[in-house]
Fold this sequence. Notes:
This protein is α+β, with helices and mostly antiparallel strands. The chain is built from three helices and eleven strands. Strands 1, 2, 3, 4, 5, 6, 7, 8, 9, 10 and 11 form an eleven-stranded antiparallel beta sheet that branches.
Amino acid sequence: MALCSSRALAFVTITGLLASAGAADAATLSFASDDDSTAFTLIGIQNSATTINISNGRSPDVTPVILRVDDDNMSQPTFSVAAALVMNLTASYAGSVGSGNQTHTYNINGTFSYVRQSDGAPLVTVRVNGGSTLAVGGTATTWGSAGAMFGSDFAAGSDNGVAYDTSGLELHMIQQGLSPSQYGFSFQNLIEDFSFSMTLVSRAGQQVEIDPNSRLPLSWESEASYSGHVVAIPTPGAAGLMGLTALGAAKRGRRRRTR
Length: 259
């Protein structure tokens, strides 16, 4: 009976440790569309018969933004850093729904990242590996003025559909006298989601026309706001170590009770 109780205690302890680790290792990143008030946030240019290249609005230069970090609405104040957006995504037509008014969807993949404005040091890199979407309303021959780009990890059928590297941001926070762990970072692999809300979608101030067959525009631009959520992937080694620690504590407690 004592052995079973020890194992039960170890199981409860391990479960609690893993749950608490998962809850702590999470954060939200964001920026507002008006951070760069003199240029569009995103631009798209058709680069083949079937694909569009999506870049930041000042490409090939970086697009200035204020990147904000939140600890999942917990106790820490929002941390802000003067950053710059660099984007290199590729979109390919996936399908349309509707008859008169339609919604056009495109598969997107590639990368986008944030670097420090002051010196270009990498802060955050996001790999969009599959299962992510560009969606825009309109008609069979036009886009409307609003849309979105979004994706999440398991949309690609695995946990790495959207993968974050925030190591540069964590180092920057340390340089600013902050503890990244208080904001949910722990130098681990991060996954989860991202979304760019797109408004003022246009082409040279006019409605975006698309080819009725390929459903691709020649070019477009838009304002956009960004939000992304990240959670840590527990490493097998870390989980195993926590398990061994909990089991050892349970065994020590059992030995003390039987003396």
